[in-house]
Design brief:
2 domains, 9 helices, D-Amino Acid Oxidase, Chain A, domain 2, 8-stranded mixed β-sheet
Length: 411
């Protein structure tokens, strides 16, 4: 702990800080680390449970820069490169593997959309290309042949290990001197003259004029504690890992995202890891595995990857992950009764916490330090883009998991 940090008599919580970050998931943790890396002396991270306890430790780890909007691509490129270069930068890493990612097309409209998307992505510097149907079949020998009309492909996209990511940011936080207050529940903010002056917790208050609010699926509740409506929600996401099979060897099983069904897959433990979300189910906390929905999606999976028909499952799990109604990040100030609250930043990844996490975190740190970021233009990414029902004025990112379009009860 930096010597300049005063502490209370309860739980060792600092009395004051240059910045407080709420939430110890991927976004909150990397935000705190970026703030320290930028030279901020006294950074405190407040986490209600323990680091990585929520969705961060249950993710499938997919990392792609093939987003459907400029914001998505910029966040994806930064995050992918951050994971790739971690070992050199930190001495520890999240286990990133550059494996190549295909996004196949099954209709002519999808082909046209993909070609337009590729042009946009290439203009932003992404190494991405169109692969014709024959090329897709050749590169994906385990896939059923002659099903696609081609695919976009980014060779640098890949995946990380979720548990290792939690380990990496834990080591990075403590190595950087961030004060981590676990099992410390955030209960609200203190304001004065239109700006934040303190963070309230269940074990004491921290005086500060800079706060970043994160929280993944619980971010709406974090917002309610401040009197701010944040239209994020939680949705069940399910992942399975099959038994191993020679046809699923990593060298012949690239990553694939079947956008129409919302199914993605990658190699894992000699088998295939694949995930899915049901946009029709009620939003909220859900960690029970839905076998009926798995059976429904398995039919689509078998049609695309026939070898999975005969394979049992080694592991299955469900996690509640966050989403925003437009599948885009939230990056902007808390909005109180009298308007934006100076010194605050709300940061959410819109269901892409692992994929965009470092990029969203770096942007949140930039906003905290400078009020702007050179990574993405955040002028349209704040809470003011949502109406009173949580509907966004922005067009949604078209390359996203099939989450509900409206978050449950933003108030």
């Amino acid at each position: 702990m930096p010597a300049s940090l005063d502490v209370t008599t309860r739980n060792g919580l600092p009395r004051s800080a240059d910045a407080v970050v709420v939430g110890g998931g991927t976004i909150g943790a990397w935000t705190a680390w970026f703030l320290r890396e930028a030279g901020m002396e006294r950074v405190v991270l407040v986490e209600a449970e323990t680091l990585g306890k929520g969705a961060s430790s249950r993710a499938a780890g997919m990392v792609r820069a093939q987003g459907g909007t400029e914001t998505a691509v910029r966040l994806g490129i930064f995050s992918r490169d951050f994971y790739r270069d971690q070992a050199e930068r930190l001495g520890i890493d999240s286990g990133f593997v550059a494996h190549g990612y295909y996004m196949p097309c099954f209709s002519e409209p999808e082909v046209q959309q993909a070609r337009q998307r590729i042009a946009m992505q290439q203009a932003l510097g992404l190494d991405v290309r169109w692969v014709d149907a024959e090329g897709v079949d050749t590169a994906n020998p385990a896939m059923a042949p002659r099903q696609t009309l081609g695919a976009s492909y980014a060779p640098g996209d890949g995946y990380i290990d979720a548990a290792r990511n939690v380990l990496a940011y834990t080591v990075a936080l403590f190595g950087a001197g961030v004060v981590v207050a676990e099992r410390t529940r955030f209960t609200g903010l203190r304001y004065a003259a239109g700006r934040v002056v303190g963070v309230r917790t269940d074990v004491g208050e921290i005086a500060t004029d800079r706060v970043v609010l994160t929280g993944g699926p619980t971010l709406a509740a974090v917002g309610r504690a401040t009197g701010c409506r944040i239209p994020t929600g939680g949705a069940r996401h399910q992942v399975v890992v099959t038994q191993p099979h020679p046809d699923l060897a990593p060298h012949q099983l690239p990553m694939v995202f079947d956008v129409p069904s919302g199914i993605y897959w990658r190699p894992e433990e000699g088998g295939v890891m694949w995930g899915m979300s049901n946009p029709e189910e009620v939003t909220g906390e859900a960690v029970e595995f839905d076998w009926a929905y798995h059976a429904r999606m398995r039919r689509r999976m078998v049609s695309l990857l026939p070898v999975t028909k005969t394979l049992g499952l080694r592991r299955v799990w469900a996690a509640t992950i966050d989403f925003t109604p437009d599948h885009l990040p939230i990056l902007g100030p808390v909005i109180g009764r009298d308007g934006p609250v100076a010194g605050t930043v709300v940061a959410a990844a819109g269901g892409h916490g692992m994929m965009w996490g470092p990029g969203v975190a770096r942007t949140a740190a930039d906003l905290t330090l400078h009020g702007r970021s050179d990574l993405v233009d955040t002028s349209d990414l704040g809470l003011d883009r949502f109406d009173e029902l949580g509907r966004s004025r922005l067009a949604p990112d078209p390359i996203a998991l099939p989450f509900p379009e409206v978050a449950a009860s933003p108030g």
